[in-house]
Design goal:
Elements (H helix, E strand, L loop, with lengths): L2 H20 L2 E9 L2 E8 L3 H12 L6 E2 L2 E4 L5 E6 L2 E4 L2 E4 L18 E6 L11 E8 L4 H4 L8 E5 L3 H10 L2 E2 L11 E2 L15 E8 L14 H9 L5 H4 L12 H11 L15 H10 L22 H10 L7 E8 L4 E8 L8 H20 L2
Antiparallel strand pairs: 1-2, 1-13, 2-10, 3-13, 4-5, 5-9, 6-7, 8-9, 8-10, 11-12, 14-15
Helix pairs in contact: 8-9, 9-10
Amino acid sequence: MSLPKFWIVLATLISSFDSAACFAQSQLVRFDSVFGKFDVALYDNTPLTNANFLSYVDAGDYTNTFIHRSANLPNGEPFVIQGGGFNFENDRFGLTNQRDPVMNEPFNPNIRGTIAMAKLGPPADDPENSATNQWFISTRDNREILDDQNGGFTAFGFVQGDGMVIVDELKAVTRYNGTDIHPAFSDLPLKDFVNDGDFAGELLLFSQIVRTTNSLGDLDGSGAITGADIDALYAGYGATPANDIELDLDSDGQVNDSDRDRLIEEIAETRLGDLNFDGRVDVLGDAFDLVRNLGITEGATYAQGDVNGDGRVDVLGDAFELVRNLGFGSVSSSSFRAIDSYSVSAVSAVSTNAIPEPGTPVLFALSAIAGLMNRRRSSFV
């Protein structure tokens, strides 16, 4: 290999290593917002910023904080949502505890989905290294704006999975000028706003921001979304956040079908009736297993065909739901990796058939199969 080629290859390897290091995941942090939970994975190459952020997390300083700034660019394009600096408790606004500023670590690009630290800026003694407790999430690619401004802003983590769906919901809330409350509230988002001075239920609150080890929806800690997670969710139906906050995925104060639907449709990206979680609802992989277990009257699992969580595998309660989604994901399923010099992200694209309603012929066919299998079972008794 010639010398110039050697240096080109070496530079490429170093660049690849640095890019991978930027996106290595260490600690997961769960944000419990009024619109549901989402996770952020912290980068490994911003240790000072991570330690600073986690010091507020571990002390519970972010409990009942809210999005106080929802900023757009002059052209109206969504820019960032910002929080961490203010709380709302007992119908009163308050300031979050503030520790010493942290040294800037502007190693990662401020792309869509990154979380970064906000800075105090001028007239701070050292504006470049003035970040304390406030953070923001970029809702667009902000590299050109934020990577060089004031020494660059430290992006220290990335929103995981379907979390940007929640972030975009937060960003879409109508903004109001609240500078009569505090000068920082010029772009204050308020949901269902009524001008009566009562902000309870209107602020975009985070009931808690905490460390976590399992990815959102991985309720049993197996490292993947499976039927066991659906079973855990069903077992917690009726629970409240006070005793099982992990199950309340949409943060509505109860554990119910809406949490199941978010787990299956948004997090696992499939549909009810996908018993083996392969991204499809089909006859051989799902309907066959359900029919094979028809007649179980108690203790049935989701993987066995208990689609609705009542402990039984039956036609009306389970087969009906499965058949309603039969065909999902059966046309094509592909995944591709988009790579540029700043980010590495996996994107899955699933194209689906129109989902048929459970017509009489299909239910008749399932019943016929069940009858044949029951006859086959009885012949061996």
